[in-house]
Amino acid sequence: MWWSGSWHVAQDPTLDAAAELESLGYGTLWASGGFEPGLSPRFGQLLASTTRVAVASGIVSMWTGAPADVGPAVADLESRFPGRFLLGIGASHAPMVSDYARPYSHMVAYLDALDALETPVPVGRRALAALGHRMLELAASRTAGAHPYFVPVEHTARARSILGPAPLLAPEVAVVLETDAAAARALAREYASLYLALPNYTQNLRTFGFDDEDIDAGGSDRLIDAVIPWGNATTIAARIREHHDAGADHVCLQVISPTGRDGLPLAEYRELAGALF
Description:
Number of domains: 1
Helix content: 40-55%
Strand content: 5-15%
CATH class: Alpha Beta
CATH superfamily: Luciferase-like domain
Radius of gyration: 18 Å
Number of strands: 11
CATH topology: TIM Barrel
Order of helices and strands: EHEHEEHEHEHEHEEHHHHEHEH
CATH architecture: Alpha-Beta Barrel
Shape: globular
């Protein structure tokens, strides 16, 4: 499962629910890395609240999480919770970064810096939030794999073809547990409005045949239905399986819910677990 919410530990609703989410069958708890320096303490708290589930950052921004700060924090988690933390790193987006220049080159330098630390972050303990061809190739060659976000199933298939068979492919997929089309799409558009204003995502969607009419005004029905599955638990589980059939090793399920705007939509995660697992 994937959850952003507040990344400050005292306010993080996933901490209270982590053990239950693990018991429901969710294999990895993905959480936002936030936008402050270093590695958020929420990851250690999530690991301490569970016994076997993996925890992953989705994502730590390379512009704010300096390797000299992040690397030792990852090493500490590895020493306390061996093999359970995955460092997800991303380039973020130009509107969110004051000096957004040459993100690919910056990411290469970032990985070089992680490798050069006294205790390097192992290749198998890091992944990239990759969308485009070059970043996917970099994910395959320098990390465990890729964590794409806000993508249709066609991207999953293309990403697998670029990554090759071995690297991890873990797309995030937001879902709405609602069977009324109008209500489901309205909630999905509220969520999608942020991402449809960011050029990295819209450029990626255009490569799959979506145009201005699809992207404008919160997203066409065609775009919303392609990127954000909605319906009952059985319908959503079938849409998640499409990503697995297209090459995903693991799908990071993010529930969009009116009851979850101020807290984790745990009831929905419970319902979906019955259909997924």
